[in-house]
Amino acid sequence: MLSILNVYNLLGVLATNVCVCSQILDKQLNTSRSTVKVDRPWKCSNNIIKSLTAMINTLNWSDANIFYEYGDEEIIQNITHSFENNLPFFQLTIYEVTRMSAVTAILQRIYLKQYPDIHVILLLRNSTSELLKMADKFDGYSNKTTNYKSASEWVILSYGNLDLVHLHLQNVIILFCRGSRFVYPTSLVDGRLIPINCLNYEDIRIHPWQNSTCSVKCLFPNIQHRHGKHHLVIGTIVSPVPSFLQHHVDDKNRTVYTGILVELTEQLAKLLNFTFTFKLVVDGYGGQNEAGEWQGLVGQLTRQEVDMVIADLSLTTERSRVIDYILPPFHKTNLAALCKKGIDTEGDWMKIFRPFQGCIYLTILATIFFVAILFYLLTAYCIRLPGDEEVSKDMVLPLLHILIWLFGILCARGDGLGTKNMPIRILVVSFSMFCLILSGVYVGNLTASLTTIKYTKPFNNLDELVELPEWRWGMPYFELYEQIMNTSRDPILQKIWKGLVEFNKTDPSTFIMDANVHIDKLLTSGEKYVYIGPDSKYRMLNRNDCNVEIIDSIYSYFPSAIAVTKNSYLKSDLEYAMGRISDSGFLKTLEDKVYKDNRPSKCQIRKEKRPLLIDDISGAFFVALIGLSITVLVLLVEITARQITRSKTNKCR
């Protein structure tokens, strides 16, 4: 029992001591806070609050985050009341940041909730520069997924000097308080404080700032450029296609880059207002090693070594899991094949049929039969006008004789058969004109076709290539091609890859990277060889040789697109810029530069002479149709006249 009472007494003593300690601790905390609290020199608080309210109204902010230190509750209350009276729908979030340890978490929360329109008001005495530097470095700590530098807008209330020399935040306004009434508004541009030119300084020193001619662009000069003055590191690679990107060292020992990728990058930099530096990679486009680590351009992005990649980097499902692509693609590459140009082995006797398509010959025969039948009917049963000589039965030609006679007209060798019957004469004349037109077109095009050499391709697609036992093929080895062909469900692609592997056992040059080696091989070696590659068309158009034939688009295109780190803040702006560039036709211009035909004029691509289509000689059939229509019309007139003559004769009798 005694022990229990002793325990209660002990607990009572401890509780008393705890209360005393807590009171002492609270007193010490209050004392420490009282040491922080000093008389704030906000002597121009009324004017600065009114100026701040008018400025936010001009900026058209709907919300803002205000940071203050302990001891400035009074001015915070005055700002809140001013906003409530003048900006009734404005939302203000207040953060007390006397202890700066929580600032990083607050900045992160603000970004996630309010991006891309982040509005901040700073009302700090001791920690303004420190907080600004924390915000300035925030993007570097966020794995390049945030963009505080250009997406945030800052209004700073200050009465003293600030260390802003190395600050990279784009949109910063500082309202300096001087004396009891003076407010000096300035903008931070390139680390320098620039007076806001649209303000009347004489009036603002005496009266609160009134919005007259100021605009958002006046207050934040860089607001129209979301990446103003940013310097980005861009990963790239020397492309197998020189038109994409090449580099050399000039006389001043500077690395100079050329190609369409440089033009594309400069266009993006102009639209988004950033500067850039290229960083070359030497270990390829992007594959995984045995440890599963990404190499090449993709590895640069995953390791945060570059801000983006602008290269002919193909878009694949595996890569898109670790990086983000910017759509639309700036280039689409078709897998094509090159082989030695062959000559047509068509026999000479077949050349006379080149001028016309087969359907034209069938149409001509049908026309002859139709006209022959009509001729026979008119000759045998046509009503004759009085005075016409009676035609003996020997003049009524059998149908076979009429066909032979019409064919003779077609060959311009009729037998001179004539008739006095008007509809038959019109029919014969229109058919003769029809034959004359066809003969002239045929002779002219036959002459042209006999003077041209017709080239034929040994195969038109991969399906035909794999069925040719004497042919071999090669291609530059890329891990991407191996993945596509090995994992493809297309049996033709599987056969192509198996063939490459088999040929490589006896010919080490099957997978050689230099395309010129493959092309020299197909031109000079005695074997039937094919080069398959994404740069085939470019190689053909830039080779001083007319004996190379291309089988284009044998496999669907490989889209090449700009790439950024996963969830990069650059993605949305780059997609917007690429959309504008694509709509302007700039990408089409770059495509034309890649595939410009630089061969000698004698090698320029000539379209194969095609046979004439039926639409090309439709005029001849139109003439025959007109003749047929006139024939029927005249025949009807003759029948009507015959009826009238007969009626008159009957009346006279």
Automatic annotation (TrEMBL):
Select a single GO molecular function from the record's annotations and give it.
Answer: ligand-gated monoatomic ion channel activity
Provide the leader sequence positions: 1-15
Q: What is the lineage of its organism?
A: Eukaryota, Metazoa, Spiralia, Lophotrochozoa, Mollusca
Protein's UniProt name: Uncharacterized protein
Q: Name where it mostly resides.
A: membrane
Gene Ontology biological process terms from the UniProt entry: detection of stimulus involved in sensory perception
SUPFAM superfamilies, sorted: Periplasmic binding protein-like II
Question: How does the protein's chain sit in the membrane according to the entry?
Answer: Multi-pass membrane protein
Q: Which UniProt keywords apply?
A: Cell membrane, Glycoprotein, Ion channel, Ion transport, Ligand-gated ion channel, Membrane, Receptor, Signal, Transmembrane, Transmembrane helix, Transport
Ionotropic glutamate receptor C-terminal domain span: 231-597
Domain annotation Ionotropic glutamate receptor L-glutamate and glycine-binding: ranges: 245-303
Q: Which Gene3D superfamilies match?
A: 1.10.287.70, Periplasmic binding protein-like II
Name any GO cellular component annotation. Answer: plasma membrane
List localization entries. Answer: Cell membrane
Enumerate the transmembrane spans: 359-383, 395-412, 424-444, 619-641
Q: Which InterPro entries match?
A: Glu/Gly-bd, Insect_Ionotropic_Sensory_Rcpt, Iontro_rcpt_C
